[in-house]
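Re-running the complex after MR caught last week's input typo. The corrected sequence lines follow. Everything else is unchanged.
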Amino acid sequence: MIRRKPAEDRKADIVEALLRLADRIGPDRLTTNDIAREVGVTQAAIFRHFPTKADLWSSVGEVIAERLHLAWDQALAGRGAPQDQLRGLIAAQLRQIEACPALPAILHSRELNVDNAFLRDRFRGLLAQYQAHLVACLEDMGKEGAIRADIAAQDAAILLTSLVQGIAIRWGLGAHGFSLEAEGLRLLDLQLSLLAGKPG
Amino acid sequence: MIRRKPAEDRKADIVEALLRLADRIGPDRLTTNDIAREVGVTQAAIFRHFPTKADLWSSVGEVIAERLHLAWDQALAGRGAPQDQLRGLIAAQLRQIEACPALPAILHSRELNVDNAFLRDRFRGLLAQYQAHLVACLEDMGKEGAIRADIAAQDAAILLTSLVQGIAIRWGLGAHGFSLEAEGLRLLDLQLSLLAGKPG
DNA sequence: ACCTCTTGTAAGTAATCAACCACTAACATT
DNA sequence: AATGTTAGTGGTTGATTACTTACAAGAGGT
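Corrected-run output:
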C-alpha cells in the first residue's frame, strides 16, 4: 500500500492533480480513474475524500475562487496610482493563468457552468467584481486625464478583459510558447497608450 | 417509423443537430445518443451515415471551415476601403458566431484539438489566414494614416481578434442577452478610433 | 403494382463510467 | 503492547459509452 496522508493533504493532492489533468485532458473529459492514477491511489480512494465527483468539482471551484480573490486583493493592497493598480490586476490575472493553464477552460467548462449552478453564480459574481475593480481604476485614471474623455470606463474595461482572454487563448493554442505575463503586459501598455490618446 | 430522407440530407441534419447541441451540452460531453434524439432517429442510424464518431466530427469541422472561408471571401469581395474590408471581416466573424453559438467552444474543444490532429492543423491554418487578412487591412490603413504610426499592424490585429473573442465569451455567459454583431461593431469602432489616435 | 436498393430499427456487444461494498493496513493514543 | 480510528484496496455494481449485426420497411424507378 502507498504512503498514507492526512485527509486534508490528500484532498489538496487530488484537487491539484485535477487541475494539472484538466489542462492536458480537458475538464469535461476527466474521469475519476485519471485523477486517481495521477495522484497514485486507487479510484475508490477519491470517493473516500469526496462523496461524489460533483463535490470534487465544487472543491476545485472554491480553491480557484480563493486564489483569484487573494491575487486581486494583493494587487489592490499597494494603494498606488490607479495605473499601477490596474496593471497589478491584469498582471495578477495573467500570472494565475500561467500558474494554472487549465483555468480558462475550467471557468468555461460545462462541468462548472451547467452541472453546478451554485458555483456558476459564484464565479459570475467573482468576475463581475473583477470588472468592477477595473472600472474603478479606469474612472480614476479618467479624472487624471490618463484616459481619453470620450471613452466610457465600462467600455475600456471590456477592451482590457478581452485582451487578457484573447492572449490567454493564443498562449494556449501556441503550446505556451511565450511568456504570458510579459506579452500580456506589453499589449496592456500598448492599449493603455491608445486609451490615453498619446504615444506610449 | 419516421420519414426517410436521402443520405445527404440526413447527414446535414445530423451535423446541424450536433452544432445545436454543442452549445447546450458542450462539445466534449455530446454523445451519439444525444444527437440521435435531437435528430429524431435511433442511435444506430447515426452510424449508418458516419462510420465513427470521429468521422462525424471531421464532417462538422469541414462544414465550419467552409462557412468561415466563405464568409471571409464575401467580406473581402467588395474591394472597398481597407476600413470597410476590416469591418466586414469582423462583422462576418460575429455573424458566424451568432448563427452558431457553439463555434468558439468547438474551436477550442478537445474533440477537435486533441483527438483530431488533421482538423486541428486545418483550423490553425484557417485562423492564421484570418489574422493575415486583418494585418493586411491594418497595414493599408496605416499607409493612409488611419492608424497611429507607432502601432504595429500585428499588434493591432491581436487587439481586434481578442476583442471578438472577449465579446463572444461575454455574450455566451450572458445567455445571448444582447446583439453580438451590434455590440461587437460598436466596440470595434471604438477601438478603431483609439487606433487612429483621434476621437471617433 | 412490383422490385430493389437504401434508409432505418431492434437488439445486441465490449469497454468504461461513477459509485458502493466489505475488508485491511497504517497511524495515533493510551 | 492494546485499542480505536482513518486512509486505502480489490471487487463489483448498474448505467452509459461508441459501435455492430441482422433484419424490416419506405421510396423511387420501371
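None of the earlier attempt is carried over here. Residues 117-143 of chain B form the longest helix (27 residues). Chain B has a mean pLDDT of 93.
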